[in-house]
Amino acid sequence: MELGIALGAVIVIGAVGGLAWHRRLQGRLAALEAELAVQTGEVAELNQRIRRGLEGMGAALWEWRLTDDTIHLSDLFLQITGYGREEFGTSARQFFACFHPDERDEVRGELDDYMARRTVHCSAEVRFRRKDGHYVWMHLRAVGSWDAEGRPLSLVGSFTDITAKMEAEEERDRLFNLSTDMLAVGGFDEYLQQINPAWVRVLGWSRDELMGSPLVEFIHEDDREGLEEAWTVLRQGTPVEGLENRFRCRDGSFRWLSWGSFPYPDRQLVFSVVRDITLQKQSEHQLLEYQDRLRSLTSQLSRVEDRQRRELASAIHDGLAQQLFGIRAQMVLLKYPDKVPNLRDIVIQIIDILDDTMAEARSLSFELFPPVLYEAGLEAALVWLCHNFGERTGIVCACAREGEGPELPEDMRAMAYQCVRELMNNVNKHARAGRIDVTLNYVDRFLTILVEDDGAGFDPNRQERPQEAERSTSGFGLFSIRERLRSVSGRMLVDSKPGQGARIFLSFPQPGEGMSDEPVAAEHFNPRPHFGDG
Predict the structure, then answer these.
(1) Cys-Cys link to 127, which of 39, 135, 428, 472 (CB 3.0-4.6 A)?
(2) Looking at the structure, do residues 444 and 504 belong to the same domain, yes or no?
């Protein structure tokens, strides 16, 4: 009986204790629920702040719930694309249909790979069609969630409008590709990493060929040391301006390039602006060559003047002076009439010597500047020159005219006469010719004179070189003639080969006219196919 009472008491006490424990547990659970509600509110508020922050930075949020294949878009996304929420709905099919056709499969593939966990990150730059039909560039990012068995549940991500950035890059690329300068990005490993089309256009190599070998392999051996020194400076972070070297083209030739390079050591890159200065270098070389020729010409002209003085002095001494001496000797005899049996014969001899002296003086004067040049014109003067030249040298020389035209001004007429005379003297000295033909031709606005001989001929290209011309009187004769013609907008063309004689064309513009770019007058003489500038 007592045992029963004791057990009952224990049961009662246990029940009372259980009720107290249950009340305490319920209180604790209520406190936890209240704390969870607070934390849930804080998380929701934090999520809202994060959403507002992301959208404040231009990130339009979206969620793709894979369980029901619906899309939920933020207000900012709808604002960027121009759609109303009721217009767009929640259809994932409609969402993906708005991607540009060229990138639609790429986006789905990127998302599928990420959801299958074949990739760690999900990011892409895509075009999305606005309501007005235009496309905007978006940077897509997404993070996913999976259930315990690894099945994807949802994707949450953002779209950032990068249209301005992409348009700026397109404009940059357009300028990069259309630039006439050669633009390049290279690495500190001395390989080109990016080049614009100007490289291919100027040098002939393909992009892969240019970027597949170290830069130094394209540089002329004599310029490689300078390139290596430039790389050393660039790796130290110092720009290099005005580096010039010869770059090998695909056809084996070399072109001169000028480099302006700016290093970015943090990225191990060098940005370069490269210009083709081959024509400038050729012009500089031609200018130096021209200056050499002018210096040599000055020396040659000085020697020519000395020779002409000697020839004139010799002509006076051997001709006029001797004749004057003969006249003086005869005149001395007249002082002694009683010793001269026949004064009349002496006077006749004196008159004959005077006639010869006058003729020789006239011939010498004509040889220098014939009065007929100014009195009767250029054709008459050249006819006289050919006649006199033939008698003096034994070379058959003829002058002819084709066409009619106005007379040249006196100064240009004198130049034409001197040029023809110099060419004929060169033939006499160097060509071993038997015949010279001088032909005047009036065509359109030009007077062209052809001087042609059947002599030994020469290589016009060799006569263009200063060192060759310095050893050749004929070479400097041609150079001098050409420069004189250029001073009056005239031109000289040379057609000659060793052993085949020479044909030299002198073109003079008529009064008030300038030379055209084409030697039209020379064509009427039926020149040989190949011409060399004399």
Answers:
(1) 135
(2) yes
- How crowded is the C-beta side of 115, counted as CA atoms within 13 Å? 17
Is residue 398 located within the same domain as residue 460?
yes
**C-alpha to C-alpha distance for 192 and 271, rounded to whole angstroms:** 10
Kindly state whether residues 383 and 489 are assigned to the same domain.
yes
Lateral strand order in the sheet of 446-453 = 396-402, 435-443, 446-453, 502-509, 491-496, 532-533
- Other CB atoms closer than 10 Å to residue 154's CB: what's the count? 18
Q: What's the rounded Cα separation, in Å, for the pair 266 and 8?
A: 86
For 40-61, the pLDDT digits (tens) are 554 445 444 444 444 444 468 8
CA atoms of 363 and 312, how far apart (whole Å): 12
8 A C-beta contact, residue 227 and residue 257: no
Rounded to the nearest integer, the mean pLDDT of the chain is 79
Whether residue 134 sits in one domain with residue 256 = no
Residue 38 pLDDT: 54
State mean pLDDT over 348-363. Answer: 77
In a shared domain, residues 83 and 188: no
Written as one letter, the residue type at 142 is A
- Residues across the chain: 534
Tell whether 378 and 510 lie within a shared domain: yes
Tell me, yes or no, whether 225 and 285 share the same domain. Answer: no
In this structure, is residue 133 part of a structural domain? yes
Full 3-state SS string of 238-306:
CCEEEEEEEEECCCCCEEEEEEEEEEEHHHCEEEEEEEECHHHHHHHHHHHHHHHHHHHHHHHHHHHHH
Residue 345, domain extent: 279-368
The runs of H, that is alpha helices, within 142-184 are: 163-178
Local confidence band at 443 (pLDDT 50, 70, 90 cut-offs): confident
* Of 119, 139, 167, the domain-final residue: 167
- Checking DSSP bridges between strand 135-146 and strand 70-73, what pairing results, if any? unpaired
Residue range 356-385: mean pLDDT, rounded: 79
Extract the tokens encoding 409: 């001004």
| Domains of the chain: total | 4
pTM attached to this predicted model: 0.45
More confident position, 365 or 411: 411
The structure tokens listed for 529 are 């196919």
Evaluate whether 380 touches 372 at the Cβ level (below 8 Å): yes
